Amino acid sequence: MAWQWFHRLGSPRWFYEKTSRWLPWLIAGTLSVWVIGLIWGLAFTPMDAKQGNSYRIIYIHMPAAVLALAGYYVMAIAGAVGLIWRMKLPFMVMKSAAPIGAALTVLTLATGSIWGYPTWGTFWEWDARNIFMLILLFLYLGVILLQSVYPSRDGADKACAVLALVGTVNVPIIYKSVDWWYSLHQPATIKFTESSSIHSSMFYPLLLCVVAYYCFYTLALILYTRHEILLREARTSWVQDHALRS
Amino acid sequence: MSEPILTLQELTCERDERLLFSHLNYRCQAGDLVQILGANGAGKTSLLRILAGLITPLEGRVLWRGKTIAHQPDFVRELLFLGHQVPVKGLLTVLENLRWLNRLQTRNPSISEREALQRVGLEACADTPCQQLSAGQRRRVLLAQLYLSQAPLWILDEPFTAIDQAGVGQLETVIDQHRHNGGLVLITSHQTLKINAMRHLDLTDFPPDNRVYDHE
Amino acid sequence: MSEPILTLQELTCERDERLLFSHLNYRCQAGDLVQILGANGAGKTSLLRILAGLITPLEGRVLWRGKTIAHQPDFVRELLFLGHQVPVKGLLTVLENLRWLNRLQTRNPSISEREALQRVGLEACADTPCQQLSAGQRRRVLLAQLYLSQAPLWILDEPFTAIDQAGVGQLETVIDQHRHNGGLVLITSHQTLKINAMRHLDLTDFPPDNRVYDHE
Amino acid sequence: MNEQTRGLFTAFTAILKRDLMLIWRHQSDILNPLVFFLIAITLLPLGLDPSPQLLAALAPGMIWIMAMLAGLLPLDSLFKSDFEDGSLDQYLLTSEPLYLTVLAKILAHWLSTGLPLALVSPLLGVMLALPEGGYGALVLTLLLGTVIMSLIGATGAALTVCLRSGGLVLSLIVLPLFLPVLIIGANAVNAAVAGFAISTHLALLGAYLALTLMIMPLAAAGALKISAGH
Amino acid sequence: MNEQTRGLFTAFTAILKRDLMLIWRHQSDILNPLVFFLIAITLLPLGLDPSPQLLAALAPGMIWIMAMLAGLLPLDSLFKSDFEDGSLDQYLLTSEPLYLTVLAKILAHWLSTGLPLALVSPLLGVMLALPEGGYGALVLTLLLGTVIMSLIGATGAALTVCLRSGGLVLSLIVLPLFLPVLIIGANAVNAAVAGFAISTHLALLGAYLALTLMIMPLAAAGALKISAGH
Amino acid sequence: MPDFKFTSLNDFLLMSGHGIYVWSSVAIALVILGALIVHPLLLHKRQIKQLKKRAAQTRAVTTNDSH
Ligand code: HEM
Ligand SMILES: Nc1ncnc2c1ncn2[C@@H]1O[C@H](COP(=O)(O)OP(=O)(O)OP(=O)(O)O)[C@@H](O)[C@H]1O
Ligand SMILES: Nc1ncnc2c1ncn2[C@@H]1O[C@H](COP(=O)(O)OP(=O)(O)OP(=O)(O)O)[C@@H](O)[C@H]1O
Ligand SMILES: [Mg+2]
Ligand SMILES: [Mg+2]
To answer: CA-CA distance, D128 to D56, in Å (whole number)?
Structure first.
C-alpha cells in the first residue's frame, strides 16, 4: 500500500498532473510570504548597531545561503533514491536541483560581497563561509557540467547521482576544515561571525524570508522538473495528449 | 529436445531514445553456433553486450543455466567476450598482452601462451611491442585467447575484422571444435562463415514495436 | 599499350629494421582496379601509405603522370586516401563530419553532402553525433566521400571493414564506375571483390632481398 | 573458497603488474607530474620577488598546492586508455569484485605519481628555503595526502572516463573534495616549522584516508559500470 | 592563382570552423583551463595565509604562473585526437601549405583557452586583492602572453603528438621557451602596480610574439610531417 | 506591532548611505529568483510548441500513408 503510493510518486505522469493543480497556490503563497518578510525586514526592523542599515542585506543573503546548502542535499538525496529504486523521476528532480542550487549560491556570494563592501571595505574577504560557498559553487558546477557533457542521458543521471553522493559525504568535512583553517588565520579586521546572535525583532522577518525562500525553491524545482518530464517523456502518449490539449 | 543453456526472454533494446529490437525471444543449447544477422546499425553489438551483461536491456532478461545473469556473479567465469575493440596495449609486447588478458580471466589453460601465439602465427613477433603490429596482427593477439579459454560461452563481435583468409579458415575450425566440445558460440560477422549446421538469429525478425515504455 | 599514370619503381619498404618487400616495380593505367594481396603484416598498408606520400620508402620512388610525387605539391589534389582509421569526430554530427572532410579537400562536388549520405544510407542520422553510431555507420560516413570526390586516384585501405553485405555490393559498383570513368583504384581487402577484370598486386612476389642498405 | 581467493589475487596482481609495467615502459608517466612539480616550483621565484623569508613563509603552502596540481595531471588518463581500447569491458567481466580491480589501478597510480612526488618534495623544500623543522612533516603529510588524492582522483577519473576531454570536469570534481587534505597538510607543515607537534594533523589525515578508502573505490567501481553501460 | 587562394581559404576556414565547433560542442575544453585557473587561485590563500597585503604582493606573479600552468593543460590534446583518428593524414593530404592548417588550429586553440583566461584574470585579481593599478597591465600582458603560449605550445604538441603520453616532454619543451614571457609579464604587472609605464614590457612581448609567429607554425608543421611518417 | 523605522520614503531609499548596497542586493535577488521561475516556464512553453509541431508532422505522415 505504502509502496504503491511510493511508486506512484515515482511516476512522472502522476507528479506532473498533481503539480499542475498545486502550482497556482504555491506561487501565490510564495510571493505573499516573501513580500511580507522582506518589507518587514527592510522597513520595520531596527537598525543594527554595528553595521547600520547594510545589515538588512541579511534578509536576502542568509536565506539564500541556507537554501544553497540545503539544495545540495536535496540533489544528493534525489540522486540516491534514483539509484536505489531505479526510478526516473528522482533523476529529473536531481538534474533540476543543480542549476537552482548554483543560482542561489551565486546569489549568496553576490549579496555577501556587496555586504562585505560597507562592512569589511572589500568585496572579497577570505572568510570561512565565503570560501565554503565558493567551494559549494564548484561542487554544483561539477554536477552541472558532468550532466551536460555526458554522452548518454541515463549515464549522465547515474554518474551525477554518484558524484552528488560522494560530495554530500564530503560537504561537512569541507565546511569543518575551512572553519578550522579560518580559526587559525582569522584576520583581526572581521568580527561578523558573532552576528549569529540575532536580535529577536530581526529574527521573525528573517524567519519569514527563509520560509519564502524554501517555497521559492520548491516552486522552481517543480517547474524545472515539469519541463524535464516533458522532455524525457516526449514519446509517451499522455505527454502528447497533454501537449495537444494545452 | 534438450534443456536450453542460454535463454533470451522478451529482450528490448533502446539506444538514445530509439528502439532497436523488441520481444526478442531465443534459446540456445550447448553445442550451438549462432550467427547474429543484421544490417549496419541493426543492434548486433548492442545485443552481444546485453548478453555479456555489460548493458542492461530496456526490458526482458537473459538466463544462463536457468538463472538471470544479473544474479550470477560466476557467470563471467564461463564467458569469453571479444568485442569490437582490441584491448591490447601498444607499449607491451605481444606475449605480455596475451599473458595479461589470460591472468585477468584467471584461467589455467591447457597450453602455454607461446603455444597459443604460435597457433595464430605470431610466434615470430612474440616480443615486439604491439604498437608496431599491423591491424590484423593486433587482432590476432586477441584471438589467441580462443586457444586458451575453457569458457563454454563464447561471444565474438566481428572477430574476422582485418584477418586474412588463411586466418579466417583457422578461426572457423577453432570455433567449430569448441562447439563440438559442447561449447556455445554467438558470433556476428558480415562475411558468410564456412561452417555447416549454423543457426542464424536475424534481428529483423524482432522489429521494434513502438509501444511506449513508461515504467509505472 | 597506353602510357602508365602511376608507376612504382624499385620500391623497398622497411618497418623497424625489417624489410617488408624489395624491388617492387609496377605500373598502372587509368581505368585500372588493383587489389593488393598479402597476409597480415605483409605490408599492404605500408605500401599504400608510401603511394600516398605519407611514408618515404627506404628505396625507390613513385611516379604520378611521370613525375615523382614528392616533387608534385598538386598530387594530393588528385588523390583520395581512405586509411585504416576513421577520421571522424564523435562529437560532431554525421553531416558536419562529412562536410568538414569535404571542405578540407576543397572539392566542389557534383552532388550535395546530404545526397551522398543518402547514398550510403545515413540520411536518417545525418544530424546525430558520430559517437552514437555503430562501427559500420562510422565507416560509412568516411565512405560517403567516394560519392563526392573527383580525384582520379583512389587509395582505399580495407574499405569494407564492418560494412554489411548490401553495403559492400554498393561500394563495389561505385568503385567499378569510378574505374570506368577513367579513374585508378588501389585497394586492399581480405574479402574477394565481386568485380571483374581486376588486377592483383601480390606482395609475396617481391620478397625482401636481405641485402644491406647503408645509405652513404 | 580458497580457489576463489586465489582467483582474486591473480587478477589483482595481474592488473597491478601490468599497470606498473606499462608505466615503466614510458617512465614519462612517472616523470610527468614530477617535472611539472619541479618546474612550477622553480618558476615561483621568477614570478614573485625571491626574498628568502617570503619564500620560506610560502614554501609549505606552495609545495602542497603544486603537489596537488601535479597530482591532477595524470588522473585524466587513469582509466581513459582502458576505456578506449575495451580493457574496461574485460575488467567488468572478471570474476572478482570491481572494487579490487579499481584498488589495484589506484595503487599502481599512487606508486607511480604520489610516492615519487612525496619523495622529491624535500628537494623543493630546499629550493624554497623551507626551515629545517618542516621536512619530516612535509614528506609524511604528502605521503598520506597523495594516497587520498589518488583515491579521490580515481573516482573523478571513473566518472569522466567516457568524456572526450574530461579534464575540466575531473579537476572540478576532484579539487573541492581534496581541499580538506590541502588545508590540514599545509597547516601541519607550518605547525612543524613553528615547532609544534603534528600528531593531530596526522590523525585527521589518517581518518580522512580511512573514509576515502572505504567510499572512493566503491564510487569509482560504480562509475566504471555506468561508463561501460553504453 | 585566384583559385589557389580560394582553396587556401576554404581549407583554412574549414579547419578553424570545425575546431571551434568541436570546442563549442564540449565547452569543457574552454572551461577546462579556466576552472583550473580559478580553483588554483582559490586554493592559494587556503595553503598560505590570506592577509591582503601578502596576497597583493603575490598576486601578479601568482596569476601569471597559474595562467601559464593552466595554458599548459590543454596543449597535450591539441593534435592528439587528430593523430589518433587519422585526421592528421588528411591534413597532410590537403593541397594547402601545412603552415596554414597549423595556424588555424593554433588560432582556434587560443580563442578557446588564452582569450578567456586573459578575460577572467581581473576577477582573480580582485580575489587576490590586486591593487587598482595592475588590472589593465594584467589583461594586456596576458592577452599577448597567451598567444605566445599557444604558438610555442603548438610546436611542443606537434613534436610530442606520437608519444603515448607526451605531457612531460611537452612541458619540458614549452616552459623554458615561455619563461621570458612569464618574467616580462609578471614584472610588467608589478611595474604597473608601482605606477610605472609598461610600454617597454609590451614592446618586448610584441617582439617575442612576432618571432614566435614566424618560427613556431613552421616548426610545428615539420614536426607533424615527421609524426605522420610512422 | 513594529513600526516604520524611517522618517521618510527618501530616507528609506537612502538608508543613511547604505541604500545602494541594500537595494542592489534586492535587485540581484529579484533578478536571480525571477529567472529561476521564468526560465523553466519559457522552456516549458517552447517544449509544448515543439511537441505540437512534431505531432502535426506525424499526423501528416500517417495520413499520407493511408492514401
Ligand atoms: C562573499 C561573501 C559571503 C558569503 C559567501 C557568505 C556566506 C554566508 C553563509 C554560508 C551563511 C549561512 C551561515 C549559516 O547559516 O550558518 C551566511 C550567513 C550570514 N552572513 Fe554571510 N557571507 C558572505 C558575506 C557576508 C558579509 C560581508 C556579512 C556581514 C558583514 C555577512 C553576514 C552574514 C550574516 C549576519 C549571516 C546570518 C547569521 C549567521 O547565520 O551567522 N556575510 N553568509
Ligand atoms: N608503426 C609501425 N612501426 C613499426 N613497424 C610497423 C608499424 N606498423 C606496421 N609495422 C610493421 O610493418 C609490417 C607491415 O604492416 P602493415 O600494416 O603494412 O601490414 P598489412 O599488410 O597492412 O597487414 P594487415 O593486413 O594486418 O593490415 C608489420 O609486420 C608490422 O610489424
Ligand atoms: N554508444 C552509443 N550511444 C548511443 N547510441 C548508440 C551507441 N552505440 C550504438 N548506438 C546506436 O545503436 C544502434 C546499433 O548499434 P550497434 O553497434 O549495436 O549496431 P551493429 O549491429 O553492431 O552495427 P555494425 O554492424 O555497424 O557493428 C546504432 O544505430 C547506433 O545509432
Ligand atoms: Mg557492431
Ligand atoms: Mg593494413
So the answer is: 6
Q: What is the ipTM of this complex?
A: 0.84
Q: Give the integer Cα–Cα distance in Å for B131 and D85.
A: 13
Mind listing the pLDDT tens digit for each residue in A62-72? Answer: 999 999 999 99
**How big is chain F, counted in residues?**
67
List of chains touching E (3+ CB pairs within 8 A): A, C, D
Question: Which are the contacts of A226, defined by CB distance < 8 A and separation ≥ 6?
Answer: A16, A19, F40, F44
If one counts every other C-beta atom within 10 angstroms of the C-beta of residue F25, the result is 25
| Separation CA B53–CA B42 (nearest Å) | 19
Answer yes or no: do A227 and F37 touch at CB < 8 A: no
CA dist B36 and B185 (Å) reads 11
Strands lying side by side in the sheet with B79-82: B79-82, B153-157, B184-188, B33-37, B199-202
Query: Strand B6-15 to strand B59-64: parallel, antiparallel, or no bridges (unpaired)?
Result: antiparallel
pLDDT in tens, C141-174: 999 999 998 899 999 999 999 999 999 999 999 9
Query: B57 CB less than 6 Å from ligand 3?
Result: no
pLDDT at B34 over 80: yes
Give CA separation, B39 vs B163, B194, B207, C84, F33, in Å.
21, 20, 13, 21, 52
Residues 91-150 of C with CB under 8 A from B: 121, 125, 128, 132-137, 140
Find all residues with CB under 8 Å of E168, minimum gap 6, and list them: D28, D31, D32, D35, D36
- Looking at chain B from residue 196 to 215, which residues have their Cβ under 8 Å from any Cβ of chain C? none
Tell me the β-bridge partners of C24. Answer: C11
Q: What is the rounded distance in angstroms from the CA atom of residue B39 to the CA atom of residue C166?
A: 8
B136 within ligand 2 shell (Cβ under 6 A) = yes
CA distances (Å), origin B134, targets C38, C139, C209: 12, 19, 21
Q: Is E165 exposed, middle or buried (0-12, 13-18, 19+ CB in 10 A)?
A: buried
List, in sequence order, every residue forming a beta bridge with B14; answer none if it has no partner: B19
Q: Which ligand is nearest to the CA of B140?
A: 2
What are the residues whose beta carbons fall under 8 Å from the beta carbon of C160, sequence distance 6 or more? C167, C168, C171, C189, C191
Distance CA D159, CA A217 (A): 28
C-alpha span between A107 and A122 (Å, rounded): 17
Tell me the residue type at C166.
Answer: A
- Closest ligand to Cα C128: 3
Judged by DSSP in three states, E52 sits in helix
Q: Please identify which residue in the block is written with the cell numbers 580471466.
A: B105
- What is the model's pTM? 0.86
